[in-house]
Amino acid sequence: MRFITLIFFLFICNNSFSQKIYSTKYKSQADINVFVTQFKSQADLLVYKVEYISQAKQNVGLWFFVDNESRSDKKIFFSDYKSQADLKVFFVDYKSQAGWRNNSKKYLLY
Questions:
Q1: Domain that holds residue 41
Q2: pTM assigned to the model
Q3: How far apart are the C-alpha atoms of 50 and 53, rounded to whole Å?
Q4: Per-residue DSSP letter, 30
Q5: What average pLDDT score do residues 49-62 get?
Q6: Alpha carbon distance 106, 110 (integer Å)
Q7: Could you tell me whether strands 74-78 and 20-23 are parallel, antiparallel, or unpaired per DSSP bridges?
Q8: Percent of the chain with pLDDT strictly greater than 90
Q9: Confidence class of residue 57 from pLDDT cuts 50, 70 and 90?
């Protein structure tokens, strides 16, 4: 019984830090409002879009965009204005560049 409980706990912990993202059409449907910056220096989080869902692990800016809202960990809305955003992101070209620049916003994706 302890083994089954341990496996269940590890499964839940592993998925609780995943970064499966669903992009909503409406601001009211989103958990977080996101603004995409033009420069890295303006961003709170540098994001890399991964190709496979298994690569979207932990809260380090590796995002996998899902097609179905129910499969997502977080629902985001891409805002047109920086002032309306909870989180500012910049999409990077390489996985190694992904990461937090402003750790005080990290809680938004837990």
A1: 2-109
A2: 0.81
A3: 7
A4: -
A5: 93
A6: 7
A7: parallel
A8: 79
A9: confident
- For residue 108, CA distances in Å to 35, 44, 69, 103 come to 14, 11, 18, 10
**Rounded CA gap, 83 and 21, in Å?**
22
Q: How many residues does the chain have?
A: 110
Written as one string, the DSSP assignment of 56-94 is --TTSSEEEE-SSGGG-SEEEEE-S-GGG-SEEEEE-SS
Q: Determine the 3-state secondary structure of 20 from DSSP.
A: strand
Q: If we measure between CA atoms, which residue out of 84, 72, 75 comes closest to residue 23?
A: 75
Give the integer Cα–Cα distance in Å for 99 and 81: 22
pLDDT tens digit sequence for 10-45: 444 444 456 999 999 999 999 999 999 999 999 999
Average pLDDT of the residues of the chain: 88
* Tally of domains in the chain: 1
Torsion 52-55-56-60 (CA) sign: negative
